Amino acid sequence: MNLLCLEVATEQELFNVYINTVARIVGSVEAAKKRIYLVSCGDSYGFGVELDQKDKYKLSVMGEVMLALPDCCFHVRNMNHNGMNILIETN
Protein backbone atom coordinates (compact mmCIF):
# COMPACT_ATOMS: atom_id res chain seq x y z
CA MET A 1 0.00 0.00 0.00
CA ASN A 2 1.33 3.42 -0.84
CA LEU A 3 -0.18 6.31 1.10
CA LEU A 4 1.30 9.54 -0.19
CA CYS A 5 4.90 9.27 1.04
CA LEU A 6 4.17 6.36 3.39
CA GLU A 7 4.87 2.81 2.28
CA VAL A 8 3.31 -0.01 4.30
CA ALA A 9 3.08 -3.65 3.28
CA THR A 10 0.22 -4.83 5.51
CA GLU A 11 -2.84 -3.48 7.25
CA GLN A 12 -1.14 -4.20 10.58
CA GLU A 13 1.75 -1.91 9.62
CA LEU A 14 -0.79 0.77 8.76
CA PHE A 15 -2.49 0.28 12.14
CA ASN A 16 0.89 0.67 13.83
CA VAL A 17 1.44 3.96 11.99
CA TYR A 18 -1.93 5.22 13.27
CA ILE A 19 -1.21 4.02 16.81
CA ASN A 20 2.24 5.60 16.90
CA THR A 21 0.90 8.87 15.48
CA VAL A 22 -1.72 9.13 18.23
CA ALA A 23 0.76 7.94 20.87
CA ARG A 24 2.93 10.99 20.18
CA ILE A 25 -0.01 13.14 21.31
CA VAL A 26 -1.49 11.11 24.15
CA GLY A 27 1.79 9.90 25.63
CA SER A 28 1.79 6.14 25.14
CA VAL A 29 0.91 3.33 22.77
CA GLU A 30 -1.54 1.86 25.29
CA ALA A 31 -3.39 5.18 25.64
CA ALA A 32 -3.49 5.51 21.85
CA LYS A 33 -5.00 2.03 21.46
CA LYS A 34 -7.74 2.94 23.93
CA ARG A 35 -8.63 6.13 22.06
CA ILE A 36 -8.65 4.82 18.48
CA TYR A 37 -12.10 3.47 17.71
CA LEU A 38 -12.19 3.18 13.93
CA VAL A 39 -9.65 2.36 11.24
CA SER A 40 -10.27 2.67 7.52
CA CYS A 41 -7.99 1.03 4.99
CA GLY A 42 -10.31 0.38 2.08
CA ASP A 43 -11.11 3.01 -0.52
CA SER A 44 -9.86 5.73 1.81
CA TYR A 45 -7.35 5.67 4.61
CA GLY A 46 -7.78 7.17 8.04
CA PHE A 47 -8.79 6.54 11.60
CA GLY A 48 -11.18 7.76 14.25
CA VAL A 49 -9.73 8.78 17.57
CA GLU A 50 -11.28 10.33 20.64
CA LEU A 51 -9.43 13.60 21.37
CA ASP A 52 -10.21 16.90 23.03
CA GLN A 53 -9.86 20.14 21.04
CA LYS A 54 -6.30 20.75 22.23
CA ASP A 55 -5.13 17.32 21.14
CA LYS A 56 -7.11 17.55 17.90
CA TYR A 57 -5.14 20.68 17.08
CA LYS A 58 -1.85 18.90 17.87
CA LEU A 59 -2.88 16.10 15.51
CA SER A 60 -3.94 18.49 12.75
CA VAL A 61 -0.56 20.27 12.64
CA MET A 62 1.51 17.08 12.43
CA GLY A 63 3.29 16.95 9.08
CA GLU A 64 2.04 13.51 8.13
CA VAL A 65 -1.62 14.30 8.91
CA MET A 66 -3.47 15.67 5.91
CA LEU A 67 -6.73 16.60 7.64
CA ALA A 68 -8.40 16.33 11.04
CA LEU A 69 -12.19 16.54 10.99
CA PRO A 70 -14.94 16.04 13.54
CA ASP A 71 -16.42 12.55 13.16
CA CYS A 72 -20.00 12.57 11.96
CA CYS A 73 -20.09 8.78 12.52
CA PHE A 74 -18.79 8.69 16.09
CA HIS A 75 -21.66 6.40 17.09
CA VAL A 76 -20.27 3.49 15.00
CA ARG A 77 -17.84 2.61 17.76
CA ASN A 78 -20.80 1.16 19.68
CA MET A 79 -22.11 -0.93 16.80
CA ASN A 80 -21.58 -4.62 16.10
CA HIS A 81 -19.81 -4.73 12.74
CA ASN A 82 -21.25 -8.07 11.60
CA GLY A 83 -19.29 -9.89 14.25
CA MET A 84 -15.96 -8.46 13.09
CA ASN A 85 -13.45 -7.59 15.78
CA ILE A 86 -12.32 -4.02 15.10
CA LEU A 87 -9.87 -3.87 17.98
CA ILE A 88 -6.33 -3.11 16.93
CA GLU A 89 -3.84 -5.78 17.90
CA THR A 90 -0.09 -5.23 17.88
CA ASN A 91 2.88 -7.34 18.86
UniProtKB/TrEMBL annotation:
Recorded GO CC terms: mitochondrion
Domain annotation MORF/ORRM1/DAG-like MORF: ranges: 8-83
BP terms from Gene Ontology: cytidine to uridine editing; mitochondrial mRNA modification
Keywords noted in UniProt: Transit peptide
Domain of life: Eukaryota
Protein name: MORF/ORRM1/DAG-like MORF domain-containing protein
Organism: Aquilegia coerulea (Rocky mountain columbine)
Lineage: Eukaryota, Viridiplantae, Streptophyta, Embryophyta, Tracheophyta
